[in-house]
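Practice problem: predict the structure.
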Amino acid sequence: MILKAERKIQKSKQMVFKNIREAVRFSGERMAKVNLCETDKLFCDVYGLEPGQGQRVHAHQDADKIYVVLEGSGTFRIGSEEQELGPETVVLAPSGVEHGVENTGEVRLTLLVFMAPNPNVV
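Answer:
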């Protein structure tokens, strides 16, 4: 019998191949998140935001988050600072610091998002 913790470790050693453009989703109702890969140590999602959509400002006490802008532009809030970022830019939201993003542009915003350690693992 394999213990639950051992399954997580085994899962984290599997190779994962996904096409980001095929995985990204958009919703007229709210920002869409699609998980691309996940281990017990981190996760990687792709976010799709229509113009005007955003991610509420929040914080993770024990995990760092990295946003990578793939397409479009948005206003990112990290702590008390706000900055508009476009394609091929990256921003770090350190653990414990409030952060969020809003698509303030006129086209869709696509983000690659990494978080470590993975807060989804109990």
